[in-house]
Amino acid sequence: MKVVICGGGVIGASIAYYLSQRNFDAVVVERTGVANAASGKSGGFLALDWCDGSVLAPLARRSFALHGSLAASMDQDWGYRRVETLGVVASARRDVAGYRNLPSPGWLGGKAAVCGRIGTPQTTAQINPAAFTNAMMAAAIDNGAALVAGCVDGIVLSPGSGRAAGAIVDGAVLASDAVVIALGPWSMLACRWLPLPATEGVKGHSLVFAYRPSPESLFVELESVDGARTSPEINPRPDGTTYVCGLPGHDALPADPADVAPEPGASALLRQMTALVSPELAAAEVLAEQSCYRPVTADGLPLIGPVPGVAGAYVATGHNVWGMLNAPATGEAMAELITGGAATTVDLGPFDPARLAPFKASEVEI
Ligand SMILES: Cc1cc2nc3c(=O)[nH]c(=O)nc-3n(C[C@H](O)[C@H](O)[C@H](O)COP(=O)(O)OP(=O)(O)OC[C@H]3O[C@@H](n4cnc5c(N)ncnc54)[C@H](O)[C@@H]3O)c2cc1C
Question: Which of 230, 267, 284, 292 is deepest in the core (most CB within 10 A)?
Answer without folding.
Answer: 292
